[in-house]
Write a structure and sequence with these properties.
By secondary structure, the protein is an alpha/beta fold. The chain has a single domain, classed as SPOUT methyltransferase, trefoil knot domain (Alpha/beta knot), CATH 3.40.1280.10. Helices cover 26% and strands 31% of the residues. The strands form three sheets. The chain has an eight-stranded mixed β-sheet. Strands 1-12 form a two-stranded antiparallel sheet. A two-stranded antiparallel ribbon has the order 3-4.
């Protein structure tokens, strides 16, 4: 006899810190890796986090943190449940980020919706952590030196993962995240979008288990 047990992780969130990513002004779509401060890394993470081959992950949100100035830090949130008009292409996603950067950065504690499923906020990772905690999200920091992540231990939870761009977390960021759980996907330091893909795979595999 075979039975199926559904062990679904309720909601998935990813927060990626862009240390040099441009936070306002006009983006040069022909130089995302240079003058835009590695916004290409963030767009790649959004693409991997939200899009399937034929569809979008409705249970996933991706927040990118633009800390590179000019002006105050900004957070851009892509919500899979309501996102419309965004195509799974690095340049197209960067174009939507560019539209956001033409708007004034909202004050911390306020948000502005650009269009369905795409909003921006003031603040940085500290504000994201506070918001996730208020929503009872189990928060993890991706760190090659952390404990191995086991999706089976988090069935039924809303989970959030914090990743860095091509630079390590700063001392101040590590201090803010000091009390958070650190989890690893192996001893090698992987690129952020690869980590997101692996995490989705582990959680997808956990959703349905078979026993004889």
């Amino acid at each position: 006899m075979t039975w199926i047990c559904r062990c679904e992780i309720m909601h998935r969130r990813f927060a990626i810190i862009g240390h040099r990513a441009q936070s306002s002004g006009r983006i040069n779509l022909n130089d995302l890796a240079g003058s835009a401060g590695r916004i290409d890394v963030l767009a790649r993470a959004v693409n991997t986090g939200l899009f399937l081959s034929h569809g979008i992950r409705k249970n996933t949100d991706v927040t990118i943190h633009l800390l590179g100035g000019p002006g105050p830090s900004r957070r851009v949130v892509f919500e899979g449940s309501s996102l419309r008009g965004v195509h799974p292409d690095e340049r197209a996603i960067s174009g939507h980020i560019g539209k956001v950067l033409k708007e004034p950065t909202p004050a911390i504690g306020h948000s502005q919706e650009i269009h369905s499923g795409l909003s921006h906020y003031g603040g940085g990772i500290e504000q994201t952590i506070d918001e996730w905690r208020r929503e009872n999200v189990r928060i993890f920091v991706l760190d090659a030196r952390g404990a191995p992540f086991d999706a089976r231990n988090h069935s039924g939870e809303s989970v959030g993962f914090i990743l860095s761009d091509d630079q390590p977390f700063s001392d101040s960021e590590n201090e803010i995240m000091d009390d958070l759980e650190r989890v690893s996907l192996g001893e090698q330091w992987l690129q952020g979008h690869a980590c997101i893909s692996i995490l989705h795979h582990l959680m997808d595999e956990n959703q349905t288990s078979h026993a004889g």
